[in-house]
Design a protein that fits this description.
Elements (H helix, E strand, L loop, with lengths): L1 H19 L2 H11 L17 H15 L14 H30 L7 H14 L1 H18 L6 H7 L1 H17 L5 H13 L2 E2 L4 E2 L4 E2 L6 E2 L4 E2 L4 E2 L4 E3 L8 H4 L7 E2 L4 E2 L4 E3 L4 E2 L4 E2 L4 E2 L8 E2 L10
Parallel strand pairs: 1-4, 2-5, 3-6, 4-7, 5-8, 6-9, 7-10, 8-11, 9-12, 10-13, 12-14
Helix pairs in contact: 3-4, 3-9, 4-5, 6-8, 8-9
Length: 313
């Protein structure tokens, strides 16, 4: 019986070794696939920006924008200056490092000589940090818009802690500042991270005014060249998108306005789709749920569908 067990163990080891011996050949095929130019890889001395580090940076910035909300530490008047000083310094070091990697990647991607990438990254980072006080005031208006626009919001704390719309807007406003400084990769990584958590997809290139409120939010899409005025309110499932294009027209329209303009004080209810770069929704208009628009709407207009006929059996 003992010999039989030993024999079985030997057979199992031989079988396992047989499978392991296949691995080098598979690795060789994978390595060769990196040399064909048909697949995607980044095999280079210069690493790409780190998605994990960029997500960490989002939360560093949130701790600066909302002191005391995104930290486990007690923040009071005694240690506020010390705490913000540490956070801002850490942000400068972390963000400038990631921007340096993004700049170097762009230089190599376009076969350009890379000069002073680190210095340029630090300049961009300082310019970004200078905008944080202004962003705090803008986001305060977004918080108030959510509180005033939703009777279910009992406190500002509730909005900051739990509203996915506010988190998506916060990350968008962070990413938009970097987008304006022509930082590649990082802004899109930021907004897509927020998208993955909230179901709200805001391109960092969109222009969004103050006191912006997204109620519920799941399924909201805001395209790159969208322009949104002040005090606009969106509900879940709203798409501010582009008209579908033939494949050969994509490059021609890549840098042109493809998404709608929403003027001040507009309310857009759930399930609305508004498409096209020439489409303008005039100020103070109300767009009823499940509407589909590819043409402009004058100011002070209500758009709604005719009440459907309900059948009860």
């Amino acid at each position: 019986m003992e010999n039989e067990k030993l024999n079985q163990c030997r057979i199992q080891r031989e079988t396992t070794r047989h499978f392991r011996e296949e691995l080098p050949g598979i690795v060789e095929i994978l390595v060769n696939s990196c040399n064909t130019g048909e697949c995607f890889d980044h095999v280079d001395l210069e690493p790409l920006p780190s998605k994990e580090r960029i997500i960490e940076i989002i939360y560093i910035i949130c701790r600066i924008l909302y002191p005391g909300y995104f930290s486990n530490l007690r923040i009071d008047k005694v240690n506020l200056s010390y705490n913000l000083g540490q956070e801002v310094t850490f942000l400068f070091e972390s963000l400038s490092e990631q921007i340096t990697l993004a700049l170097r990647h762009e230089c190599r991607r376009h076969n350009m000589l890379c000069f002073n990438c680190e210095e340029k990254a630090q300049e961009i980072t300082v310019n970004f940090i200078k905008e944080l006080p202004r962003l705090r005031y803008m986001l305060a208006k977004d918080v108030r818009a959510a509180h005033e626009g939703d009777p279910a919001a009992k406190t500002y704390d509730e909005v900051i802690f739990s509203y996915p719309g506010l988190f998506a807007i916060t990350v968008y406003r962070i990413a938009h500042e970097l987008y304006k400084q022509k930082v590649s990769l990082i802004p899109r990584i930021m907004t897509e991270y927020a998208h993955s958590l909230t179901g709200i997809d805001i391109h960092p290139g969109a222009e969004i005014g103050e006191s912006f409120f997204i109620d519920h939010g799941t399924g909201v899409v805001i395209g790159e060249t969208t322009v949104i005025g002040n005090r606009v309110r969106l509900y879940q499932g709203v798409t501010l998108g582009a008209l579908s294009l033939p494949k050969d027209a994509v490059e021609e329209l890549r840098n042109k306005k493809r998404h709608p303009t929403i003027e001040d004080d507009v309310i857009i209810y759930a399930g609305v789709t508004i498409l096209g770069g020439e489409t303008i929704i005039g100020a103070r208009s109300v767009i009823g749920g499940n509407s589909w628009l590819t043409e402009s709407v004058p100011p002070d207009t209500k758009v709604f569908q005719k009440k459907p006929e309900l059948i009860f059996k």
